[in-house]
Amino acid sequence: MTYRSWQPAPRRRPRLTRRGRIALLIGAALAVAAAIIVPLLLLGEGKPAPEKQRTLLIPEGWRSGQVYAAVDRSLRLAEGTTRKAADSPAAALGLPAAAQGNPEGYLFPATYPVVNATTPQSLLRYMVQTAGKRFGADHITAGAQRNGVSVHQTVIIASIVQAEADTTDDMGKVARVVYNRLAKGMALQMDSTLNYALGRSTVDTTHADTKLDSPFNTYERAGLPPAPIGNPGEQAMAASIAPAEGDWLYFVTVKPGDTRFTADYAEHQANVQEFNAERRAALGQG
Fold first, then answer.
1. Could you tell me if 220 and 128 lie in one domain?
2. C-alpha–C-alpha distance, residues 260 and 250, integer Å
3. pLDDT in tens, 219-246
4. What is the C-alpha end-to-end distance of the chain, expressed in Å?
5. CA 271 to CA 255: how far, in whole Å?
6. In this structure, how many other beta carbons lie within 10 angstroms of the beta carbon of residue 172?
7. Count of alpha carbons within 13 Å of 20, Cβ hemisphere only?
8. Contact assessment for residue 230 and residue 162, using Cβ atoms and an 8 Å cutoff
9. What does the pLDDT look like over 171-219, one tens digit per residue?
10. Domain for residue 122, yes or no?
11. Are the CB atoms for 253 and 169 separated by under 8 Å?
């Protein structure tokens, strides 16, 4: 019998079943994915989520007090905070010299962006800058010169037009009444200026109201009021630099959509009587 020296049998590489091969591939893929995701997570660590921008709408014709209140609400500030900011010389809103520090008329109606860093001063300054760009345009300056008034006076007229006109189509006619009355040295007799002085909005004006001691009482004082009575929009400004042609001196909105313009005082009085009748009916006063 022949003997051979003992040697270990050759080692065989393990063979994977189909299920084993799939598990191995999945494990490798997860390892690669982890290698990619972890650095991405590390890169994003500590970064704040993108801030969602809000907006603040300032409608045409709003008075400064309404704007201040809206800014307080939008920025979640205590009531009166924005008014104090507007009154503070440190606010440096960039108002024109003719405004004499009064923002009324220059808080331009538009939609403004609001973020967490927005302050009352920055927001009001943005509104004033926007008004400066719109009111400082060449066609506004040329229109004011053509009408024999300053740009600031045009803003005052536009604020009255914005408050008095029942519709956009009426704006040009209301502006013409203002210019016609100024040319004749007549008191403007605009209820909107009385409402501004009294801090209200109404179509009911009493005889006592017309005796109010105020520079905004255009029943007692001839000429324009000393400042705008609200913040006019572009349409009111456009009407104020290019008023409609007509000889009208009077107007009254008898009912919504029915504003009557005339140069005849007797006809105007008849229109006012009709307005009063409509008003009594609306209030149930027969």
1. no
2. 8
3. 999 999 999 999 999 999 999 999 999 9
4. 141
5. 11
6. 20
7. 4
8. yes
9. 999 999 999 999 999 999 999 999 999 999 988 899 999 999 999 999 9
10. yes
11. no
Residue 9 lies in a domain: no
Structurally, how many domains does the chain consist of?
2
Do residues 59 and 154 share a domain?
no
Report pLDDT digits (tens) over 104-162.
Answer: 999 999 999 999 999 999 999 999 999 999 999 999 999 999 999 999 999 999 999 99
Q: How many residues are present in the chain?
A: 286
Per-residue pLDDT at 250 exceeds 50? yes
Task: Give the Cα separation of 102 and 140 in Å (integer).
Answer: 21
Range of the domain at 73: 55-135
Which residues are CB-contacts of 159 (< 8 A; sequence separation ≥ 6)? 61, 104, 105, 228, 229, 230, 231, 232, 236
What residues does 251 pair with on adjacent strands?
261
Q: What is the pTM of this model?
A: 0.81
Residue spans of beta strands (DSSP E) within the chain: 54-57, 111-114, 250-255, 258-262
Final residue of a structural domain among 110, 135, 160: 135
Percent of the chain with pLDDT over 90: 75
Q: Say how far apart CA 247 and CA 265 lie, in whole Å.
A: 12
Structural domain includes residue 242: yes
Q: Which long-range contacts (CB under 8 A, 24 or more apart) does 67-71 make?
A: 67/107, 67/124, 67/127, 67/231, 68/120, 71/120, 71/123, 71/124
Residues 164 and 255 in one domain: yes
Taking the C-alpha atoms of residue 234 and residue 232, their distance in angstroms, rounded to an integer, is: 7
Q: Does one domain contain both 155 and 277?
A: yes
> Are residues 84 and 193 located together in one domain of the fold?
no
Domain stop point among 100, 135, 170? 135
